[in-house]
Amino acid sequence: MFLSFVYEGGLYVSECQRPKACSPKRSPDPPTGQEVFKAVLSERVDWKPFPAFPPSVRLAVVVGRPSEPGPYTIRVKVPHGEKLMPHKHPEDRVYTVISGIFYIGLGDQFDASKLEAYPPGAVIVLPGNTAHFHWAKSSEYVTQVTAIGPLGLEYLSAKDDPRNGQS
Questions:
Q1: 145-150-156 Cα angle (round to 5)
Q2: pLDDT in the model for residue 165
């Protein structure tokens, strides 16, 4: 009698010639929920400059790898008075306002009359390739963005893109 148990994902692995000789060996278990559980506290967020943003704006990666395919969550902190000129992202995005008032307007030209104000806790769904702009009009704001990467950001005018060294 020949028995064979093979499983690549972490279950029993055994190859036996006779039933009495069988002694299943346990391969390493896959991580459990407790082993991969992760919590990120606001005070531990690692804020960094991001080349596509004005120098005073900061980005923090909360979960995932935004430059690669797959889900990610980032936070963006914009100081009072700063504007992000019209741009678009190829990916669909879900914004959650963490703090401050988040002003966002739709369109390919910055137009303050098109800005809508969203308070902390608000959730904004922005379809990919939608031209929009932001302004930290009344105070600093922090938003959390969840999307499927890779993250992309294209300014509608090259002169507005900080990566060009012209803004």
A1: 75
A2: 82
